[in-house]
From TrEMBL:
It comes from the Eukaryota. Gene3D superfamilies: Chloramphenicol acetyltransferase-like domain. GO terms for molecular function: transferase activity. This is Protein ENHANCED PSEUDOMONAS SUSCEPTIBILITY 1. It comes from Arachis duranensis (Wild peanut). The lineage of its organism: Eukaryota, Viridiplantae, Streptophyta, Embryophyta, Tracheophyta. Pfam families: Transferase (PF02458). Keywords: Transferase.
Amino acid sequence: MIQASAMPVIRLISASTIQAPSQADSDQKIHLTPWDLVALPIKMNQKGLLFHHKPSSSQIQHLRHSLSSTLAFFPLLAGRLIATEGENNTTYCHILCNNKGSLFVHAIAENTSVDDILQPKYVPSIVNSFFPLNGVRNCEGTSQPLLAVQVTELVDGVFIGFTINHVVADGESLWQFINSWSEISRGCHKLTKDPSLERFFLDTVEPPFPIPAPSPFTKEENQNSQNSTPETPVRVFHYTKEKIAQLKAKANAEAKTENISSLQALLTHFWISMIRCSFVDAQEEVFIFLPIGVRRRIVPPLPENYFGNALQIGVVRMKAGELLQSGIGKGAMEMNKMVASHCDEKVRSQYVFMAKKPVLLQLGGAVGAKALATGSSPRFNVYGNDFGWGKPVAVRAGLNIGEGMVALFGGKEKGSVDVQVCLPYEILEAMESDSEFIDAL
């Protein structure tokens, strides 16, 4: 029996290993880039889709078969991480496409409906139980599946939860896989976009790259992942295309420019509201962390279907008082400059630096009352995923999104954006009472 923190509960029906139909490349070894290795210590990436359709037993069995067929195109997702010891207390890591398989879980939430998920102000805690491998860190991919899927039947629908190892794939690659699986599930024999599995390496630094001590693979380091994740409230805020356009116009007018994007304006608005409702001292430094996609920033650009990680973390720092007093234009302009600075030269120089001196992301990190860390993107194809019974009605991030984390998704209506955020209850309640924040919703 799988149980959330309180009633209701979900009942486990089965758990099985799904392998690709062929082991032709069972010994394929995929070296990892510095962009991949940085994610080793953090928890696996979790995203899920909610459908207003209750699948039959034959449809669930069809999902198993179509997942196997899809893994033939994505053999690394059926593999495992391999860690080896090097000299001077270093560790090396690669992916072995050994077809040990992905995890497929079938469960039922007998007393939970689609409306029970969508109507509450806060995301119900039972949603956390709709994802497999909760609390598992990426470095545990030496023994845990690199991909796990949970299909949870509801009273009048179904939730498909995806847990993927972030060392293997970033958000863009995760949704590429989900898009591909839904295509094959609908009966397509050819993918719209075949994945490009070849990793990006520079001639000046060759893999494998050493991981310095303390190794995230040691027993002592992994004990942290056994601790339960404290429950922090999660809410989803919806922004229409019209409201986002107003925020963009306001930011550009204040900054006297036309360069600030819709997303930069929206994120700055949200950041300002969070800091204002956190009552941070005016002299305190506050932060917002953004993943910068580099597929199209490298010259020549990486293949559009590049499957792996192609991200660098950018950060904007400002004094709380300056951020609040300067308005949306100042913060958005600082964000715009930071993003624009990630040109080909900077991306390559940071790659070399990370290859020679790897820096791993830390559990928790500098997020919370003084910082936001963003993830996902409204540009990903979320609502186009039809597995044969219609498109989803909602998307959610899983338990592995921690305090101060923001997940961005394109809304159901074209041009709209849903912002899922995990923050302390008192901050979220204060934001709901903040007129400037509410006016933009």
